Amino acid sequence: MTTSTRTLGGLAPATGRASAPVPGPASGAAAGTAPRGGALAALFHATATQAGVAVVVVLALLAALVGTAPFARQPTQGTEILVPAYAAASFVLETLTAALLFAMFHVQRSRALLRLAAGYLFAALMVPAWALTFPGVLSGLGVDAGLQTTAAIAAVRRLGFPLFVLGYALAPVCSDTSPRSLVPILRTVLAVAGLAAVCLWLIVEGRPVLPGFMADDRDVTRLWYRVPAVAILLYGLAAAILVWRRRFALDMWVCLVLVSLTVELALMSWLGGATRLGVGWWAGRLYGLAAASIVLLVLLSETTTVHLRLARAVAAERRARQDRLTAMEALSATIAHEINQPLASMVTNADAGLRWLGKAEPRIDMVDAALRRIVADGHRANKVVVGIRTMFMTGAQEREPLDLGALLRETVRDKASEARAAGIAIDLDLDPALPPVIGNALQLRQVVANLIENAIDAMTATAGRERRLRIAARGAERGEAEVSVADTGGGVPPELAERIFEPFVSTKPEGMGMGLMFCRAVVEAHGGRLWVAPARPRGAVFAFSIPTALVPTNAPEVSR
Known about the structure:
The chain folds into 2 domains: 78-312, Rhopdopsin 7-helix transmembrane proteins, CATH 1.20.1070; 396-560, Heat Shock Protein 90, CATH 3.30.565.10. The chain contains 13 helices and 7 strands. The chain has helices at 48-68, 83-108, 111-132, 149-170, 183-205, 226-245, 249-271, 279-358, 364-391, 404-421, 441-460, 494-497, 515-525, and strands at residues 400-402, 425-430, 437-439, 468-475, 480-486, 529-534, 540-547. Strands 2-4-5-7-6 form a 5-stranded mixed sheet. Mean pLDDT is 77; it is low at 1-44 and 551-560.
């Protein structure tokens, strides 16, 4: 078994280089990139910290390349024994990365993730055969796979991984809307395993006609140099597409993987003279493993962050449920009073209307006024009932990727007529790179609607000043989307600012104080937070933040 993959010899293709969806606001990514793409990672844009880490890793790789270059052609002795250890490390890193990417796909259903996971799995499955056929590894057992076998396996692996990455880069930024199922994952795993098996079978059965990559156990022929050249060309093409599309943070880490693979090939194939087991040959593999480890750690870190965020959301949701039950105990004592007030008023106005109609000369104007008061009291009673029903509606806990900008635009459109009637101008300021979020459309729309209605009521109660409502949304640094509703009303008294989200606390004489409590419960159940601050020069700003989506997806239009 003479051969080896001197240049490429080995495996670096994938080595676990994937990465995380970037938490951030893009993290940040994956999330369809909302603004440009989706959210593979919260992303749309990587955070400054992630970009800094990537730059440091690239500089370290280049520094290592420069530092190793003078010694790259020096041979080593007796290092064949380390090949199985290197192969095991590569196999573990790539398998773990593939498993994490498959898990992310199961949540976000992005075909891009599925293709990238398939690439890592393919690279991992080729590793054992490469190590077992490596010259000198099993020679003591009388195993001889032929001079060209190892190099042929390495060539297939080197060229196969970037093809999968190209598929990832070219994949549409959208999610599969079919029900979540393990079938696509199992089908992909079986297909990749079958592809790897077919490639290995063809290589083993076709040993007599394999390309002459190796001149002897350590040196390659000129034909071999075409493999790293084509591989680097594919790396560059994939990286260019990823940079051009700029979809999400995961793309940045994949580009880092491609850079590390390019450095690895440069050391092994050209600076190291493509000599197997030389200093450059080993250095390239070690640098590739180091880069792969860093990226895998990032992916694990981001996955852990996601789980912590979900745990926080679950805890907040449980707390919110308990708060709602507690509030309902108090509400049960006042609900009759709250409903009875508008009902009593409706009865009084109806009686008055009948009396005005019963006069010798009916007062139609007074009857009209009484009917209008009845309608207003009916709407008031309806708001009480709707507010309670919304908190406990069926399906209120279902979550899906949402286009937050579309949700805000639709809610504002629904409230526009009410604002115009009150003489209020609405400004809608949406960040063009606003990332999608994971949430319940019904609940979030109700939150925004409650905040808008409160702002309209606050400005209607004031006179002699400009009435303007400003609704803004943008991505935040911590992988969150932030929405603010600012009015020019009377503001929130300082003594109520700390208690405004508690049940039965309201600045409106007729208010129940349940609306803001509901808003806080919903936002916290989504893993976010809700707060109030004074507006300048007057008024109040109610704002909330919720985590962004993690993986690319074309967020569905919010149903009306």
